[in-house]
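ok so i was messing around last nite and threw this chain in just to see what happens. nothing serious, just curious
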Amino acid sequence: MGNARCLPADPQATFLPFQSRWINDASRLKLAEKPRQVGWSWSAAYAAVRRTAQRGAKFDQWVSSRDETQARLFIEDCKLWADVLKLAAGDFGEEVIDAAEKQTAYALRFANDRRIHSMSSNPDAQAGKRGGRILDEFALHKDPRKLWAIAYPGITWGGQLEAFSTHRGSHNFFNQLIREIKENDNPKGISLHTVTLEDALAQGLLYKLQLKLPTDDPRQGMDEQAYFDYIRSGCVDEESFQQEYMCRPADDDVAFLEYDLIAACEYPAETHWQHIEAAELYAGIDIGRKRDLTVLWVVERLGDVLYTRHVEALHNMPKSAQQAVLWPWIERCRRTCIDATGLGIGWVDDAQDRFGASKVEGITFTPKVKEALAYPVRGAMQDRALRIPYDAHIRADLRSVTKQTTVAGNIRFTAERTPDGHADRFWALALGIHAAAAPAGVIEFTPAPRHPRGFDSAHNDSDFRIPQASTW
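result:
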């Protein structure tokens, strides 16, 4: 049926070799760096059911997932294996494990009265629990170091601590553990498993996948090389592919924003973040046309925190069609900052004519201005004063910005141009944060020139300082 050429050593076996090795590894501490969607959580759920349900089992299992959705999926995998293995198991649904802290978990109880508790990402939920620990997508948690620190004492009286994940940057605690194993004689005695997409395909992953796919799925006609190229081409960028599928963490020493910094500000995946509460809205608009995106980023101020409420990327649309999308948001927002560089000059003219110069500010990008815009983004993230969507394209845009020092000692912020833009979401966010900056300080800058037709004159590219808010 499929076109896979790499068959498992035992085509009838339920698990591929890399899955079996993980299931049968009884080490007290074990860690896996692995690719996305190769059945790792599925096989980890089988191992958890097998050791928890057996007669004489002494320990419950406490699973910590990235978010509530993932926690529910893990317990559903456990229920599946309980049914396959014909084990008596009671599904207790969502139960309260700490009323004071409003912590809940999905629970599955077996005939021996042992349970698997699947929780979301709050590290404090691991405190005071005894038994096995399973840290699913460990690097994707907001604070992996704290999660490990709280989970580890729970196996003092027995049980395993197992963590598995794709990478999230070179500074992430997950990667620090792996480097400690590989480069520093493994002082913690952790059993490390490393599996890339190439490894999984060589062991029969595509064969297993094609058994499950509909007969008309285009992946049925692929061999391993074609499938590898298919996955690679579908990733947001090469950095994402190497990190998500090849166990090569992105270099946080090159990027302006580390993965941990971005992840700490992301909404949980299931959050309805578009809900507007107090309507104190501010917007940033980065202008593009054919090569780059036009991106609108709207934030709402609630106390000291800016909550993203809307992000829209427009590509290869005529100006009139883009205005039909953007103008209603400018009208709703208290203040909007627009990229007035080149093509953007005419946009600023039109917006100020319609909404007033007090409501719309044009920002001409120069190296100094980019520096003044970029650092407040990082500062807001460091202060946990910003919330952004959990989105692969946004994350890739934020990661694409690099800070470089020229021979003359000047700072330049650059980003590689990709089919998905040129860090346009990052600069829209930076403009939105600047729009929300209040009270503004003394303005010393060369304003974007206003021209009747907008595009016929070159903009003034002299350096200037944009208003500095007291919180910057």
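not much to say yet. DSSP finds 15 helices and 16 strands in the chain.
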